[in-house]
Amino acid sequence: MPSGDTADMRRVVLAVAAAMMLAACSSTAVNQPGTSAPTTPTESTEETTTVSITAADLPAIVPLDTTADGAGPQRIVSLATGVGESLVALGVGDRVVGRDETSDVDALSQVPIVTAAHSVSAERVLDLEPDLVIIDARTTPSEALDQIAASGVPLVEVPEAWTLSDIAPRIEAVAAAVGVDPGPLLDGLPSDIPPEADAPRVAFLYLRGTAGIYLLGGAGSGADSIIAAAGGIDVGAQAGYDAFIPLTAEALATLDPDVLIVMTNGLESVNGIDGLVALPGVAQTTAGRERRIIAVDDAILLSFGPRTPALIEELREALTQVSP
Q1: CATH of domain 13-57+191-322
Q2: In the chain, which segments carry CATH 3.40.50.1980?
Q3: Position 102 confidence tier, pLDDT thresholds 50, 70, 90
């Protein structure tokens, strides 16, 4: 898959994820080519080695003290993927008046959402009278952004983050946009490191059963970077697959991962562990037979922000718990 197609696929995947954070979809699954819909699970008597990682498992975000500095934008709309987390950590969460669905942080829970997936409503944004709108390459449509810019509101595009090395540049860009020194937020950020040869072999499955989407993660999915930092080997990336490819029984059985990582909403969309094991090829893997599953909160797995170091430590511990 060409790099441009890979970027488009990643954007489609995260747009679907964001949309499903807002509303439940139809309960009827549509088959993805090369897959079949999960069966309705019955009560399982199998032992399940499953670990769930939620935002509540991570330390609370401690904002920088910016109360003495009243400079910079005072009414911020955050439309860039996951950037709300960085805004809170930078100490300007109380200035955020509008956000996208992926800026899912407790401190912003009462802030109105002005997008559907990554699609922006210019009218809803302008109604909030912002003095800064933060976007990234996934923020659409361009007509809405043009309308916002034409009104005189500054738009600042910050870089996307798909690897651990992308975290610092994105935090720095957000900090510059809001006029805050990122200081200690940049200390101790993890770097991209190769896993050990005997590390557990992990497959990241992106699942939206109610939308008929079943994908296997590979190089550039974002999860590959997180898995490696936590001490695992992303088998899709190791096999040379692009960011996301259709999940097939043949591909998954051939890779034979020790552990499966899924998003929490994705696991729910296939009717839980039993539904996951019923997907084509899953039961033919070591992970499926032993039911070694790690479910990670959608809002934190690919956030690539200040909470990512803590997520990596939680994932490292989870891999220790479920690995053979």
Answers
A1: 3.40.50.1980
A2: 13-57+191-322, 76-181
A3: confident
Closest CA to 172 of 164, 162, 182: 182
**pLDDT value at 31 more than 90:** no
Closest CA to 51 of 324, 298, 319: 319
Chain center to CA of 173: 20
Any idea how long the chain is? 324
Question: b/e for 107-127, b at 16 or more Cβ within 10 A?
Answer: bbeebebbbebbebebeebbe
DSSP sequence for 17-66: HHHHHHS---S---PPTT--PPPPPPPP-S--EEEEE-GGGSPPP-----
Burial track 294-310 (b if 16+ CB lie within 10 A, e otherwise): bbbbbbbbbbbbbbbbb
Domain 76-181, second-level architecture: 3-Layer(aba) Sandwich (3.40)
Query: Is the full-model pTM beyond 0.85?
Result: no
Compute the half-sphere exposure of residue 320: CA atoms within 13 Å on the CB side of its CA. 7
Check residue 104 and give its pLDDT: 84
- CA distance linking residue 170 with residue 188, whole number of Å: 15
